[in-house]
Amino acid sequence: MTTTQPDPAVGAAVKAADRAHVFHSWSAQGLIDPLPIAGAEGSYMWDYDGNRYLDFTSQLVNTNIGHQHPKVVAAIQEQAGKLCTLAPGFAVDVRSEAARLIAERTPGDLDKIFFTNGGAEAVENAVRMARLHTGRSKVLSTYRSYHGATAAAINLTGDPRRWPSDTASAGVVHFWGPYLYRSPFHAESEQQECERALRHLEDTIAYEGPQSIAAIILETIPGTAGIMVPPPGYLAGVREICDRYGIVFILDEVMAGFGRTGRWFALDHFDVVPDLVTFAKGVNSGYVPLGGVAISAEIAVTFDQRPYPGGLTYSGHPLACASAVATINAMAEERIVENAAEIGEKVIGPALRDIAERHPSVGEVRGMGAFWALELVKNRETHEPLVPYNASGADNAPMAKFAAACKERGLWPFLNMNRTHVVPPCTITEGEAKEGLAALDEALTTADAYTV
Q: What is the mean pLDDT of residues 249-265?
């Protein structure tokens, strides 16, 4: 692995320029301390002081093929030399090929691809398509979800990032999805959780008026909200409810798609075909911004003779599409999806369950592939979270100290609320996974100190 020679002076200059001019997302600007990164390769990144970190975050759970994959870098360079950009209205070879490769991997007849710049725009357009297709306005989404930060997407989101932007008039209704560990339905088994969650959804639809509901949107496996794998039968049950009431079923695969769960799409685990699928992140590992919507034949025909009232200057950008083609081909040729499945089943899952047995701060382990979460608690019996919901400042000290302990051991962790997620690149090797899991194991002793 090539690493940059340590140069603290350059790092200090990078940080000074950042602090002077860059406005960071989701942050109080005066309270953050961004780490200047000098480079990254594969599963690692490093700073200007010579510290190397194993990336257990895949950045924002998007570098599924790792950092600086040579085939994707070369494809971007080649496309830049050939044709950097072209308006969406033209037919471009690399755009057509990216769409074909994606459509080959989506289920059923989701064969039309509308390209966006990322996941939030994919959600915006999927919701717009559903509303226009049905002539209805309301969209249902779950609490404990994240769908993006644009206008409709942030209102669909079910976590505290929605609160400052929630207009309460965006035609969004939230309901509870299944989550057995913290069941809102007092369920004692996955079967009960599934049945009661579906009944709750039906009740919500009944009281909102089925004739007013355009779509139900779910993350196939909620990502940032906690990687809660739905119980058997739940997604099939939602599909049946949507069919019964003429509601469009949208699955958000922005985070869970393209190998993250050990399948091309997380929905492949559940034998369900939605009407629309949103994607981004792993489609090209974020090397160039790209997202999109896979559209069923029934919805696509709605816009056969009727213009679709939506578009983006950079829809299907040639550089982004070239990176997607190279990413998908590399994933197929190098068995990256299979690697995620195998590493999850044989290494990450067993190690996390072993860790849970030895650390009183670990309340639950859940996940699949390269997509796992540890729920950290003060008390295993009561399930009391290690920190309060949406904690900050002193209230969040236990999680902050755990994160610092990870970084001291060369592990860059993904934290949200009272959870740490294990979401490394899908290319991670067994040795790298064991290295990170060992560091995580050691760091959890800091969380254990807060248990009762």
A: 98
